[in-house]
Amino acid sequence: MLVLTAFTWRPAAAHPSDWGGGKPTTFPALVRNLRDEFRSIDQALVIRDFRDVWQHAFEVTTLTREVPVFAVSLSSALQDSALGTIMRTGMRIGAIAGAVRLAAERGDSAEVASQTLRFVEPLADLDAYVPKQYVCPMHCEIGKTYDRPLLCPVCNMHLQLVTTDRYTVEVTPASEPIRAGIPTALHFQIKDPAGFDARSLQVVHEKLLHLMIVSHDLSRFEHVHPMPDKEGRFTLRHRFPAGGRYVLYHDFTPDSVGMQVVPVELVVEGPARPPVPLRMDVDRPKRIDGYEVALSHTALAPGVECAMTFALTRGGRPVSDLEPFLGAMGHLVMISEDRAAYVHSHPLEASATIGPTIEFKARFERTGIYKAWGQFQRRGRVLTVPFVVHVSLDGKPRIVDRVQSGKTR
Fold first, then answer.
1. Tens of pLDDT along 134-162?
2. What whole-number distance in Å separates Cα of residue 323 and Cα of residue 379?
3. What letters, b where the CB count within 10 A reaches 16 and e where it falls short, cover 257-270?
4. Which of 90, 110, 131 is the last residue of a domain?
5. Per-residue pLDDT tens for 9-48?
6. What is the pLDDT of residue 17?
7. Considering only CA atoms, which of 84, 87, 112 is closest in space to residue 98?
8. Which one, of 319, 318, 293, lies nearest residue 308 by Cα?
9. Residue 195: which domain range?
């Protein structure tokens, strides 16, 4: 069975790590090393390399001896009088590692797997004492951080943990290969940074998982929602209209971590459509399904807050009876031409209207050409409107036409 996982991609939010391999020098680095060793045990077990399992379990035992040294440096531990708890947790992890080593010596894969699962709870206990910072995923307050997972006072979104830890998503088709024009079931398993199944997700805009399916040339876009099951997996029955490469952007929010965006690339067999060039078109309205939609914006530059405003009319009359779509008066998704940057925004609650204009705030991390899709709902039907915009250092748009060869003219 084909299993697809995320390709290398810049995380939605990150901060410099104080760990670059080797012996840890801080408590957060120690916890991170422990996570990596747990992941390595799990990977070694898959190929039944018990020598490697034993070695990584031994590294866990060695690392737990450092817990008391770093625990005394934690202000949270001192304030909460939790030094004893942290030290007992370290001893508990060491004992589990010892059980893993004994099982590895016997070649007992079932026991190794059982003991490895016992790492999850004490690791979470240690992680609770790692100092954390939270920011708004919509970048409402640039430079503002919080020490608790509150709600953003501006947009009311759950704050996002600033971290370099990456979630992954395994995408498994029910049958392979995936063929164009033939419905297939796709199964999704979200994994936490330690490689364990992620089960505690928040409902954000009415769904646990938002999935953007985008063709490689960005000409096709779908915003869909796989269905969850009792085991923590998600399933989507989907038909790809043409062969070629697609990118699946998984947008979800784990508890206490904040919004994550994980892209996974897959290949669909069958006749492919000719690539569609990216052409700047923000200077003229779009006519879609009987609606005329115009997009205006402030200077689009990286690192600053940009305003993007959609204006909707139908038959020459302003549309002023829009309905909430997935808990907001609109959704705006923007993806860079190389598919490496992803921006998801929605109107601020305080300024949201039912039309005819809907304003979004967006923040870009890099320059380049972006395909943007605005989504709105009226009378139960969703309207998806695409535009191509240019983000430059000075905020001034250039006349850019990306042809099939990838050159600019």
1. 888 776 776 688 877 788 887 777 787 77
2. 7
3. bbbbbbbbbbebee
4. 131
5. 333 332 222 323 457 888 888 888 888 888 888 888 888 8
6. 29
7. 112
8. 293
9. 164-268
Angle at 208 between CA 217 and CA 374, to 5 degrees: 40
d(CA 217, CA 75): 50
Residue 252 clears pLDDT 60, i.e. is over it: yes
Residue at 15 is within a domain: no
What's the CATH number where 230 sits?
A: 2.20.130.20
pLDDT in tens, 77-129: 555 567 788 888 999 999 999 999 999 999 999 999 899 889 888 888 888 78
186 in the same domain as 90: no
Model confidence pTM above 0.70 = no
The closest alpha carbon to 40, from 194, 162, 166, 150, belongs to 194
Instruction: Determine the Cα–Cα distance for residues 207 and 224; give it in Å rounded to an integer.
Output: 10
Query: How far from chain centre, in Å, is Cα 244?
Result: 23
Residues 6+ apart with CB under 8 A from 221: 212, 213, 214, 215, 333, 371, 373, 384, 386
Q: How far apart are the first and last CA of the chain?
A: 44
Identify which of 173, 178, 276 has the alpha carbon closest to the alpha carbon of residue 218.
Answer: 276
pLDDT value for 159: 81
Q: Are 96 and 38 in contact (CB under 8 A)?
A: no
**Do 373 and 298 fall within a single domain?**
yes
What total number of domains does the chain contain?
3
Domain-ending residue, one of 106, 131, 156: 131
Residue 178 clears pLDDT 70, i.e. is over it:
yes
As a dihedral over the C-alpha atoms of residue 340, residue 234, residue 133, residue 140, rounded to 10 degrees, the angle is: 60
